[in-house]
Each structure stands twice: as C-alpha cells, then as structure tokens.
C-alpha cells in the first residue's frame, strides 16, 4: 500500500517502524547479514544513490542478502487501522489488510469519472456528477429524441429545431423552432417591412396606416391634368403652382380683381382687362398713399418727445443753404419731427429756413414754431398759452472755451392767430414751398445771421443743433 498515510488505532511497536522514513513499514524487507528491516521502497531509494551500505551499521550490502520479511508484513497487516479519510468523515475501522478493499468502495475516496471527462471527485458525489454535470454523459433531447453528450446537449438546447418557442417579435405566436424563420419573414404581424415609397421601416400591422400618410405616396392630381410622379408632399404645391388646369385668381387680386380662370387662360384675361386693372391699381396706389401718410404720422407720434423739449440736428447744412440760395424764390423750409409740450399736451413742430424767410431772407437763419392738430386738442385750453424758447447751440469744446448758445424766448399773445386751435387735418406742412404767415407759426425771421454763425462753432461737421423748449412747469403745478 505505497503512498497511503496509514492511521493506526494504536501506536505500533518500535520494531514495526522503518529507520529511514520513521513510519510503519510497507512491504518490509530484511537484510540477512545484519538482521535490520526497512520499507522496500525506502531501501531502494537509499541504494539508488549509489551507497551500498546498511543504513543502520554502514556494513557493505549485497542485493542477494535482501529478502522480503513475510512474517513482519503479516503482523503489520493485522494491526487495527482507521480509514485514511477519517478526517473527512469516514467511520470505518478494521485490520490494515482490509484497507484496500474498503477504499474501493469508500464514499470519501477520490475517483475519476468513468466517462473519462477528466473530473476527479469523491465517490459519494459521482452519481450527481454523472446525472447532471459530466460533459460526456449521455442525454436524450425531449423535443427531437436525439442522443447527445452533456456538453453537446447544452449547445443543442438553444438550436433544437423541434423545440416549441415564442416568436422573437413578441407577436404571441408559438411554434417549433424550424418554422420560426418562415414565420418571421412572411407571417408575423410584428415583422418589420420597408415602405416601398419612402423606404422607412415599419411594423407589418402599421405599414398600411403609414401609407395613408406617407409623404412619398404617389397621388393623382385632383384636376386630372395627367401629370405623372406627383407625391403626396408635392400635391398642394402642384395644384397651386404647377397644374396647368387649376383654377387661379387674377394676378391683380391684391388690387381688387375677383376674376378666376384656369391657369392657361390667365394671359388672355390680362389682355382683355388691361384698362380695368389700371383703374384698380390707381385706387390701390391712392389707398396705400393714405396708409403711408397715416403710418408716417404714427411713427412721428411715437418717436417725438413728450417732455416739452426738442433737440433737432440739421445735417448737410452747407448743401441745404446752397440749395435755398439757388432757388428762384430763395425759400427752402426744413421741418423738425413733431413733439408734445407735455404728456397729453399740445402737438408742436419747429421749422427752419437755412437762407432766411421774409425780412431775414438771404442772410439770416429763420426759426419758427407752429401748433399742429393733436390727439388731445379737445381737452386743452386755447389759444396755446406757454412760453417758448429757441436756442442755436454752440458746438465748441467746453474744455477749451465756454459755449455761447444763442437763445430767444417769447410768450404767445392770446390774440394771435398762430396759436389758436388748428383745424383737424390742416397740418400746414408743405415741403419745398413757402407758407403763408398763418401756416408759418410764430418765430424769428432774423434769428442769427450767416456771418455770426461762422464766428463760432454753431456749424460743426456740416451740422447745426436747434433746441426748442416749452415752459409748462407752472401750468402743470396749477392744474
């Protein structure tokens, strides 16, 4: 029993131990010349090192003098012993000579799988291994009946053609696996199909609904013009613009023409209704002129000041002065944006004559203010009562010299026609021509001479600044 770590029930006597391994001897042999006993295996290993002397007394040894000690072996085999797997749980005890027979059936002994799968395990674990774990066990498929080894059976389970499976598209159908491919291609209501028109993929049970909305679906022109290849997304554009038989409105519909005709007859209609269209266009131009005038007035209302102060910049002054001088009448009036004396107050406007007006014509700058029709005239007292100040601003650098603004102030006389309530619609705003005295408002024909304007920086960068102020503080406090 070489290789086994024997576990005796009681310690053997000294003479049973091998002097070389110091364990109970296995297959004991005796040296006849000296009477010493050793394990056959231990002695062979000792002599294999080339030392032919007795390990005990170091006397020369002769192989012919070494014999098996049968009597000692029988004594050792009759000693009581535990199973070598007693620590693992085996409770077997008997004579040493019965150990090998016991190990051939001991449940704790390690054995190899009889199917030669390379597994080593306890004998007690072998039935479970053979039934469930051995990769070389023989198994029959419950679906197709074929026999497989354990390893092949595991691979076969996912591909058995006779196994009943559910459709992978989750349509709810169940069938044997060999029919699944055909079902997925031609029968499954959840299979994906490309739309034949837009090529996008849809489920089979929804593609019919998609084709009722598909933008690439071919359509027939509702006017039956015969144009091929019209898609749903292009149908409206075709009917409106491309269809030769579609009924369209006259191109002069914005001017008021209500005529409708096929697109092919538009040209003839335009030729026959030329005079009508010209008349309609004339009316449209007049309406647009009135709308522009109203829009201009609204813009001026929104952009104008409402705090009683106007700061008006006149650009290109030298060109405007030269233009005024070149006129036969010498009269060129420039108009400021409208502004209000205060919130919900009088609507006013300043005008200037670069080359003068009246007594100042030819050598002075003339400045006037006039009252325009306003939104709140019905709530105001008349005539216009507030003091007015005009200023021509000196544009000199304050860091170099103190600016010397030119300022003139007046208080309106209630008897003057210029400050009575203006008639609604009588704007008194005639660009490019001289106005009569009533339309001019009130001001200074000789506000400042051209000669004085050149002495300082009243003209700078070819521009002048005119400021108009309405003194309404006291009136507001008293109201």
From TrEMBL:
Keyword Metal-binding (UniProt): yes
Residues annotated as domain TRAF-type: 101-154, 156-208, 210-266
Subcellular location: Cell junction, Tight junction; Cell membrane; Cytoplasm, Cytoskeleton; Cytoplasm, Perinuclear region
Pathway note: Protein degradation; proteasomal ubiquitin-dependent pathway
Molecular function GO labels: tumor necrosis factor receptor binding; ubiquitin protein ligase activity; ubiquitin protein ligase binding; zinc ion binding
Catalytically driven reaction(s): S-ubiquitinyl-[E2 ubiquitin-conjugating enzyme]-L-cysteine + [acceptor protein]-L-lysine = [E2 ubiquitin-conjugating enzyme]-L-cysteine + N(6)-ubiquitinyl-[acceptor protein]-L-lysine
Residue span, RING-type domain: 18-58
Swiss-Prot/TrEMBL keywords: Apoptosis, Cell junction, Cell membrane, Coiled coil, Cytoplasm, Cytoskeleton, Developmental protein, Immunity, Innate immunity, Isopeptide bond, Membrane, Metal-binding, Nucleus, Phosphoprotein, Repeat, Tight junction, Transferase, Ubl conjugation, Ubl conjugation pathway, Zinc, Zinc-finger
Annotated family: Belongs to the TNF receptor-associated factor family. B subfamily.
Protein's recorded name: TNF receptor-associated factor
Origin species: Carassius auratus (Goldfish)
Upper taxonomic lineage: Eukaryota, Metazoa, Chordata, Craniata, Vertebrata
